[in-house]
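Request: How about a record?
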Amino acid sequence: MKFYGLTYKDINQKTTINHEFWTKKELINKINECAEKGFLIIDVFEKNLYREI
């Protein structure tokens, strides 16, 4: 199972925000939203979740 992450800087609130998404579509929508608002994207990542038995 994979999840996707996005870290960006909100220039209005002067904070760094992290978001996690379960689908690429959610990630892409948030990236587009950040671009429209002029927010600086710091990191985009994909991670695998492993379950130990």
